[in-house]
Design a protein that fits this description.
There is one protein chain. The chain is α+β, with helices and mostly antiparallel strands. It is built from 3 helices and 8 strands; from the N terminus they run H-H-H-E-E-E-E-E-E-E-E. The longest helix has 21 residues. It comes from Arthrobacter hankyongi.
Length: 140
């Protein structure tokens, strides 16, 4: 995960989703925030998770599953590298204080593809962006 390489990016990407899973289960998004300081959508997800738990609610399910991480292209001069991630999420339910249903997402057996961009600097990776790109073609 700390290697400045495609393998390092892959390990870091799996770690990112583990951190997101931890935040979903506990409401503690500090780890997620720490590795995604430059990723606006990641920080927005962290905010949403914390808001649920801070209000006395909780989240059941919704665990992210990166099925593979396929680096694409070459790392640029700023240390940025992209990868395609075939991805699925478990069904999930968000409950408010007192057990009131707020939101429910069904499991999608087809999943999707995400494109992640991360930067290697100062001995570690930082997530820069995660976007759903269902039409992206995985290299063969």
């Amino acid at each position: 995960m700390y290697q400045d390489s495609a393998e390092g990016l892959a390990s870091f990407t799996y770690y990112y989703f583990d951190a997101k899973n931890y935040a979903l289960q506990t409401g503690d998004a500090r780890l997620l925030r720490g590795i995604a300081q430059g990723c606006a959508s990641c920080l927005a997800e962290a905010d949403a998770i914390e808001t649920v738990y801070d209000g006395g609610g909780w989240i059941v399910g919704g665990q992210p599953k990166a099925l593979n991480v396929v680096p694409v292209g070459k790392q640029d001069k700023k240390g940025v590298l992209s990868a395609l991630v075939p991805f699925m999420e478990d069904a999930g339910t968000t409950m408010a204080k007192g057990g009131k249903l707020v939101d429910s997402e069904e499991w999608d057996p087809d999943g999707t593809v995400l494109t992640v961009k991360a930067k290697y600097a100062h001995g570690a990776w930082q997530m820069l962006s995660i976007k759903e790109t269902p039409d992206a073609q995985l290299p063969r």
